[in-house]
Structure formats: C-alpha cells, structure tokens
Amino acid sequence: MALFPEKKINTLVVYPFLQDLTDQEFEKAITEIITTQEEIYASTNIVALIRKKAKQVKALTAGEAWGIVKKEISSIGYWGKPKFNDSIIEKTVEIIGWRTLCVTERPSIERAQFMKIYESLVSRENDNNITINQKEINNEQRARIAETKIFKETQKKSTKDINRYVVKDVVNS
Fold first, then answer.
1. Mind listing the pLDDT tens digit for each residue in 42-59?
2. Which of 1, 29, 31, 40 could bridge 54 with an S-S bond, Cβ 3.0-4.6 Å?
3. What's the pTM value of the predicted model, to 2 decimals?
C-alpha cells in the first residue's frame, strides 16, 4: 500500500481471507482505513482490520432503538403485534417480551434492559460479520495456499539441485 509503505502485504496469503467480501464492502473498508487510520504498524493484522471495517453493522444507537419501540408501544399497544424494520430491535423486543414492555410499572428498568440487550446484539452481529467462517475457505483457496507453499519448497530444492550440478561440473572439468 503506497499510503503505508512500511506495511508489506503478501496478496497470495491475504486474498483467500478477503475473497468473500463484495467489491462495495472491500472499497468501503479500504476507504475508511485510508481516511481514518493515521498509521498501520508492522504487527497490524491487515486482514482483520479490513474485515472489521467491511462488515461493521451501522446500527442505530440504543437510545434511538428504544425511541422506535416506545413509538410502537403508543401506536399499537398491548394487544397489537409490533412490526420493526430493524431485525436487532425485533430480536431485542422478542427477548424481553412485547407485553412486558407495554405493561411495565418501571419503564426505566425496562429501558435499561432493552438498551443493554440491544447493544449486546449489535456487538454480536458485528463480531459474527467480521469473523470468517472456515467453511467459506473452499478447496480452491486451500489449494492456492498449498501451491504457494509447494512452489516455495520446489524453488529451494531446485536451487540446491542446481548448485549440486554446478559443483559436479566444476569437479569433473
């Protein structure tokens, strides 16, 4: 990367771990890294950094999510069935219980519980998106990694063989 000249990247090793990213995710990650990272150190795991930026869920804040739930409580109430456009809000409401949220006598406690659960689910979603599933590294990718290793070993052996032949020729002449 020209922007971080001290960071050497072996694309043969990195590519298989980023191959599942869409072009948009990859571009978003690289753009964010270039515009927000002041430095990338030699010990920085560049694959993890790119995956984190590419797969990060841009969720509402817990307070914004709670506001949506409160609005739904006022509009449909205890007997209605809530509909949310956000799957994390939906899961949070499911965990606590719609009726519990509607009839609570201590809304500040339910609010605190909602916010804590919501933040936990957002964090888990981000972690799940960032972590690469080992099953996603298909046989072709594993073969490419193996070919790289075999190529390097073959290069070493070839150099030894060439040196051996050169020594024999010199001795025989």
1. 777 888 888 888 877 667
2. 29
3. 0.54
